[in-house]
Design goal:
This protein has helices at residues 3-14, 47-64, 79-89, 130-141, 158-166, 177-186, 194-203; strands spanning 18-20, 26-27, 33-34, 36-38, 70-74, 93-96, 109-110, 118-126, 145-154, 171-176. With 213 residues, it is an alpha/beta fold. Strands 7-6-5-8-9-10 form a six-stranded mixed β-sheet, with helices on both faces. Strands 1-4 form a two-stranded antiparallel ribbon.
């Protein structure tokens, strides 16, 4: 567990951006029962946490992607983080829409992007990886060299890991599901015995046998 992983885990738990409720599972839109609720948008309304997140994103990009020339946020959750981090780093910033506009210049990529530029994609959360890989593909089709992704939090779901590998794209997250579960138990947000339930959910979200276990 790195210092950044621990710091961001504590931050996200403190503002309930990541909130565990294994005894009363949330229900996702898909119908899947989940012991965790995640809303990293809350970091934007908590100045101290926001500072930790953006400084950590900048530090991580400098370390993992030192050749970065442009930051591109995912729409919509990654836009603010990309903008703040790019400002801290003195880099250009843009974002990728979920689809091309139906008016004006019909852009899908907003902001200036030259062919061959080295890009890092900024995302707030990675679960199955589908949406962020679509962004990577749009940027590649536009001629960008995508160095990789930086995200605030990842579940570490096998489906997401596999998709990223198949797309040949690297992701570095500030913190992850396992670290947050451990910190949550240490700081009494959950019981130590709940960790096994959380990991069982993460490893196979469609299997609800962890409920009541």
């Amino acid at each position: 567990m790195t210092d950044i992983q621990k710091l961001i885990a504590k931050d996200l738990l403190s503002i309930k951006a990541v909130f565990f409720r294994p005894s009363e599972p949330f229900t996702w839109a898909s119908g899947i029962k989940s012991p965790v609720y995640c809303d990293n948008r809350l970091t934007l309304t908590a100045p101290a946490v926001r500072t930790d997140v953006e400084m950590s994103l900048a530090e991580t990009i400098k370390k993992e992607y030192p050749e970065a020339e442009v930051l591109m946020g995912t729409s919509t959750a990654g836009i603010a983080h990309a903008a703040i981090t790019a400002h801290l780093m003195g880099l250009p910033m843009g974002y990728v829409r979920s689809g091309a506009k139906d008016h004006g210049r019909q852009n899908q990529i907003e902001g200036k992007l030259e062919k061959g530029q080295k890009v890092v994609v900024v995302e707030d959360l990675i679960s199955t990886g589908g949406s962020v890989i679509e962004v990577v593909n749009v940027l590649r089709e536009a001629g960008a060299e995508v160095l990789g992704i930086v995200s605030i939090f990842t579940y570490g779901m096998q489906k997401g890991i596999k998709r990223l590998e198949e797309a040949n794209v690297k992701n570095v997250s500030l913190t992850n599901f396992d670290v947050i579960a451990e910190i949550a138990a240490e700081e009494n947000y959950i019981e130590k015995s709940d960790i096994a339930k959380l990991i069982a959910f993460r490893n196979n979200p469609s299997d609800e046998s962890w409920i009541g276990a």
